[in-house]
């Protein structure tokens, strides 16, 4: 034992030193030196040396690796090659208990915030809650496509954009109200989902991913350049706000506040918007959960498991994929028109590939196919992201690193069990995600 | 004239399948009799699975016709149907050589997926189902009953809510047959159902197949290597070698056919005469 | 005609850069079957490394030609080396722990790594554009503008020659490397069956790491060429170039080296000609639409091996 100790220490130091050396090689150019442009005429390039930063980074890697080796990885090393006993599926019980808690919190949130922070103080938090809930809804919509049907869609934001622009343009050109446009936007997005989906759903795996990515970019570029119709990069502003059954959120006589005998406050609209997106999101969830128990939902999941077997059982796989694609697109469209009405202004900048990536990340980090996982992931990623607004560009760096760390830590996502859609016995167990396929399309 | 020629459920006529320059199946014709268990046998690489893939629509044959005679009298030309319609309309179901179950779904769910088409109709293509209309609930309960029937028959009823990937190999094979049967087929195509089974499981399989034939309006076409299975349960055996039919008849006839013996023992064609002499023909 | 020729030259140059990046995508996809979304950002890091080296070594157009060539070769080699470390590190940190895990996990870490790299460079190098004075100037005039001097003068600049020649040399070198060396053999073995390759004594982890290193080195070359050609870079160049290059890899048939080069050339040509004859704004739409159309009719790409569906 004591004889092995120096060896072990040496191994540790070599390992950590190796990490530090790599960090040094990576950082010597990109961190230790900064190339900058002189202001003034002639725009010369100059170098600034920042060896202190480099030293911190290298030190952090050395000691970080040392600490990880001593505290975390060491335990695993003993068992190297021995498969660890599989942890019991806990996700399901967790899911059962979390659902009502989340629901109650979500419903009471605005009032609790108002109670604690007052109208002025709670505004920013309700705004944040609206944002998070929008992402939850988008995540749930995409979950149908990626989580259930196993079709990798990297251009989901396209349908979000179609929904947003449908509402904005219909309101702009025809003066339609939000409540007429909402279903129209969903239908249009679903329609686009079918148009785009029809030719490409024969493709498998990553080909589908890249083509959906391409479609997402095409739609964005068209929105950006069709100046006469969409306003191009200037976007569309002055999008009408939604009304509460015909009551506008205005200060006037016939406004919402006056009708209910309240003092006018701009927070009413914010709270209304919050409940609007909450209802939209819960509808998405309700429909999805319902569909999972119907033949179509089971066909989606079967498709994810084995497409060839599906065809041998007489399932029309093209139609099945299309419905998943169209339905996911429809919910994206609903979310999009909500986004438009909430912002009052939209431009192509809101619909970049990065949005698709973030939504997909929420779905995968939450655990494919898990509805509650999407909520947790959205709260952590979006909520956390927005809370650290002061950190500016650092938070995006942390966001990216967090995506890597969470995935390495839990490759199957935070909630990784699948609840059966039908069961003979009363309380069937969840299925460990290790057995669930991820789809090839 | 034999039963399979008088009352065929499937007629394979001049089936040819070429992959590039390779002819996997050449001008193959045979009939599958209604209510029979028909075995398609032959050495490795004889083109048996290719024939299956043509029948079930995963390959489009280069030449030839595949006529499915439904019990109601309608005929379906399988080579013209897309693969999912072969199961949905022509009522031909199949299993796979390397089992293809929905591993992440429960055993019951596997059987529910197999009843997708009638359930889709019952749910008014999902609309009625989402709204919770009554007709669907009843049909779904019927589907569960049907699934339960097959689970009892295959002895899987106690594990109905377990993931299919959790089952042992033999159980997976039986579940795949049960799943195919849940589509209500008139012709069931089994690709090496006994492969990898131990003698006990093999015996259970025989019983299952006999029950299917006895109690259901389903004819069976199977590919098999295990001669004990073939000879014991089949009514009709077709032997393939290098994509060509070399023998066709009752198990007894085929067992004594010198061409078959030659093919299985790996004798050259010109030595067939010698072998014939040896077996006393 | 002159206009066409000029567009052709520009298209081939752009296509060479795409092709160099596309090789990285295609090699990684071939060996571990994942889209390395961070590859575009590795290209960006290569470009930045080269810029820093150029400023550090004081390379300017005023140097004697022989000195300039030597300095640029040095910059190229060093940029390849430093960028390769980045490529290696990304694989080690974000992908290796997920080897054998399910398919979407490395895709998400790749996107995460891409976001992290972009923002790291934005923080460490600043968000401003970095313009570089042209280092290689001058050109050949291929036509003289006609008898009355009214026709367009077709020019082939020395930078373009450099880019095309370097690309051709590297392509030839890498093709030899893949086809003739034991490393290439190990790579192809891992592509076919990673488990079997490991059983036969191939060091799979090292082979995969080397693939990333090679891909990153080529991306660095593309980064240097991009810097020389356009003369201005920022932290965001990786995204679009990456998506285009991946499109090129898929178009050519993912997993195939000549396919990546062909796809790169095609995407470069489509973009240039579309901008030249139709509209600059919709050049990306043209490139992506061609991709979609090709994939719909030839799902395995132009030079890819058809995926056989085993039943």
Structure report:
The complex is a heterotrimer of chains A (441), B (281) and C (311). Chain A is mainly alpha-helical. Chain A has helices at residues 4-30, 51-78, 91-148, 157-174, 178-200, 205-225, 227-230, 256-259, 267-292, 295-305, 307-312, 317-343, 353-366, 371-387, 393-409; strands at residues 33-37, 45-49, 236-237, 345-346, 417-418, 431-432. In chain A, 68% of the residues lie in helices and 4% in strands. In chain A, a hairpin with a 7-residue loop joins β1 (33-37) and β2 (45-49). The longest helix of chain A is centred in the first third of the chain and has 58 residues, at 91-148. The model of chain A is unreliable at 76-89 (pLDDT under 50). Chain B is built from 13 helices and 10 strands. In chain B, a hairpin with a 2-residue loop joins β1 (8-19) and β2 (22-33). Chain C has one domain (2-143, 163-297): ABC transporter involved in vitamin B12 uptake, BtuC, CATH 1.10.3470. Chain C contains 11 helices and 4 strands; from the N terminus they run ααααβββααααβααα. Chain C has helices at residues 2-32, 39-57, 65-95, 104-125, 158-180, 182-192, 194-199, 204-230, 237-252, 257-277, 283-297, and strands at 130-131, 139-141, 155-157, 232-233. In chain C, the strands form 2 sheets. A two-stranded antiparallel ribbon of chain C has the order 1-4. A two-stranded antiparallel ribbon of chain C has the order 2-3. Chains A and C meet through α1, β1, β2, α6 and α13 of A and α2, α3, α4, β1 and α9 of C.
Let me know the CATH homologous superfamily of the largest domain in chain B: P-loop containing nucleotide triphosphate hydrolases
CATH topology (fold) name of chain C: ABC transporter involved in vitamin B12 uptake, BtuC
Question: Can you count the beta strands of chain C?
Answer: 4
Tally of DSSP β-strands of chain B: 10
Oligomeric category: heterotrimer
Low-confidence stretches of chain C: none
Count of DSSP H/I helices of chain B: 13
Q: On the 0-100 scale, what is the average pLDDT of chain B?
A: 85
What is the CATH architecture annotation of chain C? Orthogonal Bundle
- Give the strand order of the largest sheet of chain B, numbering strands 1, 2, ... along the chain: 6-7-8-3-9-10
Proportion of strand residues of chain B: 15-25%
């Amino acid at each position: 034992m004591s004889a092995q100790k120096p060896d072990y220490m040496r191994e540790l130091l070599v390992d950590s030193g190796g990490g530090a050396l790599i960090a040094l090689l990576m950082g010597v150019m990109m961190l230790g030196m900064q190339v900058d442009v002189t202001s003034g005429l002639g725009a010369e390039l100059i170098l600034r040396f920042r060896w202190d930063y480099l030293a911190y980074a290298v030190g952090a890697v050395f000691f970080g690796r040392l600490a990880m080796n001593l505290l975390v990885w060491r335990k695993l090393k003993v068992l190297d090659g021995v498969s660890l006993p599989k942890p019991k599926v806990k996700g399901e019980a967790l899911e059962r208990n979390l659902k009502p808690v989340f629901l109650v919190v979500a419903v009471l949130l605005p009032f609790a915030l108002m109670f604690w922070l007052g109208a002025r103080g709670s505004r920013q938090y309700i705004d944040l809650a609206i944002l998070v809930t929008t992402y939850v809804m988008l995540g749930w919509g995409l979950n149908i496509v990626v989580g259930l049907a196993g079709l990798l869609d990297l251009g989901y934001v396209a349908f979000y954009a179609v929904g947003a622009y449908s509402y904005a343009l219909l309101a702009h050109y025809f003066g339609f109200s939000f409540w007429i446009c909402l279903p129209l936007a969903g239908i249009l997005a679903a329609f686009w989902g079918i148009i785009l989906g029809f030719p490409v759903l024969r493709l498998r795996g990553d080909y589908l991913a890249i083509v959906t990515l391409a479609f997402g970019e095409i739609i964005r570029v068209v929105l950006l350049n069709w100046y006469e119709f969409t306003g191009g990069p200037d976007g569309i502003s002055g999008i009408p706000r939604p009304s509460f059954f015909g009551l506008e959120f205005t200060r006037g006589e016939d406004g919402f506040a006056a009708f209910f005998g309240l003092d006018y406050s701009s927070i009413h609209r914010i709270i209304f918007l919050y409940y609007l997106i909450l209802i939209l999101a819960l509808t998405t969830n309700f429909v999805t959960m319902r569909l999972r128990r119907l033949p179509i939902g089971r066909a989606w999941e079967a498709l994810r498991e084995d497409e060839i077997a599906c065809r041998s059982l007489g399932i029309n796989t093209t139609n099945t994929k299309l419905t998943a694609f169209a339905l996911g697109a429809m919910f994206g469209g609903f979310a999009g028109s909500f986004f438009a009405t909430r912002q009052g202004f939209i431009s192509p900048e809101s619909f970049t590939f990065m949005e698709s990536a973030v939504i997909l990340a929420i779905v995968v980090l939450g655990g494919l196919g898990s509805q509650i996982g999407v909520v947790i992931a959205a709260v952590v990623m979006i909520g956390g992201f927005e809370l650290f607004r002061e950190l500016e560009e650092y938070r995006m760096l942390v966001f990216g690193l967090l995506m890597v760390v969470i995935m390495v830590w839990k490759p199957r996502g935070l909630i990784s069990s699948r609840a059966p859609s039908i069961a003979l016995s009363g309380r069937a167990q969840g299925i460990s995600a290790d057995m669930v396929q991820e789809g090839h399309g | 004239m034999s039963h399979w020629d008088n009352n065929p459920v499937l007629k394979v006529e001049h089936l040819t399948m070429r992959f590039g320059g390779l002819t996997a199946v050449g001008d193959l014709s045979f009939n599958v009799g209604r209510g029979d268990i028909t075995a398609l046998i032959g050495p490795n690489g004889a083109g048996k699975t290719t024939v299956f893939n043509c029948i079930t629509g995963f390959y489009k044959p280069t030449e030839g016709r595949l006529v499915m005679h439904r019990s109601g009298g309608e005929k379906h030309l399988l080579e013209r149907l897309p693969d999912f319609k072969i199961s949905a309309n022509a009522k031909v179901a199949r299993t796979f050589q390397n089992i293809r179950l929905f591993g992440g779904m429960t055993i019951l769910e596997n059987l529910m997926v197999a009843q997708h088409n009638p359930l889709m109709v019952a749910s008014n293509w999902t609309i009625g189902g989402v709204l919770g209309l009554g007709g669907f609930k009843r049909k779904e309960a019927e589907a569960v009953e049907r699934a339960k029937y097959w689970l009892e028959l295959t002895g899987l009823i106690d594990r109905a809510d377990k993931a299919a990937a959790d089952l042992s190999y033999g159980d997976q094979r039986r579940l795949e047959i049960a799943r195919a049967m849940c589509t209500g087929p008139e012709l069931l195509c089994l690709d090496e159902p006994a492969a990898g089974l131990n003698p006990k499981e093999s015996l259970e399989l025989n019983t299952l197949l006999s029950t299917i034939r006895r109690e259901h309006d389903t004819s069976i076409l199977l590919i098999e290597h295990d001669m004990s299975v073939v000879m014991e349960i089949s009514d009709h055996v077709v032997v393939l070698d290098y994509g060509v039919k070399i023998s066709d008849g009752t198990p007894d006839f085929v067992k004594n056919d010198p061409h078959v013996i030659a093919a299985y023992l790996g004798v050259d064609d010109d030595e067939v005469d010698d072998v014939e002499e040896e077996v006393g023909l | 005609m002159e206009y066409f020729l000029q567009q052709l030259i520009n298209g081939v140059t752009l296509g060479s850069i795409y092709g160099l990046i596309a090789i990285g995508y295609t090699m990684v996809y071939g060996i571990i079957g994942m889209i390395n979304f961070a590859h575009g950002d590795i290209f960006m890091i290569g470009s930045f490394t080269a810029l820093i080296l150029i400023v550090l070594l004081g390379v300017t157009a005023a140097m004697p030609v022989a000195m300039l060539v030597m300095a640029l070769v040095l910059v190229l080699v060093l940029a390849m080396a430093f960028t390769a470390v980045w490529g290696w590190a990304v694989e080690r940190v974000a992908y290796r722990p997920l080897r054998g895990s399910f398919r979407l996990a490395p895709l998400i870490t790749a996107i995460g790594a891409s976001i992290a790299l972009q923002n790291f460079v934005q923080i460490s190098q600043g968000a401003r554009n970095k313009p570089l004075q042209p280092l290689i100037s001058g050109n050949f005039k291929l036509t003289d503008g006609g008898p009355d001097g009214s026709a367009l003068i077709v020019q082939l600049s020395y930078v373009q020659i450099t880019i095309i020649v370097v690309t051709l040399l590297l392509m030839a070198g890498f093709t030899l490397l893949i086809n003739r060396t034991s490393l290439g053999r190990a790579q192809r073995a891992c592509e076919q069956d990673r488990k079997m390759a490991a059983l036969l004594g191939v060091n799979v982890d090292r082979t995969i790491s080397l693939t990333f290193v090679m891909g990153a080195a080529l991306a660095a070359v593309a980064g240097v060429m991009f810097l020389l050609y356009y003369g201005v870079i920022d932290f965001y160049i990786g995204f679009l170039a990456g998506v285009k290059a991946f499109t090129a890899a898929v178009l050519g048939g993912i997993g195939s080296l000549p396919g990546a080069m062909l796809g790169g050339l095609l995407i470069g040509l489509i973009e240039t000609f579309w901008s030249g004859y139709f509209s600059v704004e919709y050049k990306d739409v043209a490139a992506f639409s061609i991709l979609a159309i090709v994939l719909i009719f030839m799902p395995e790409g132009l030079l890819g091996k058809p995926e056989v569906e085993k039943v």
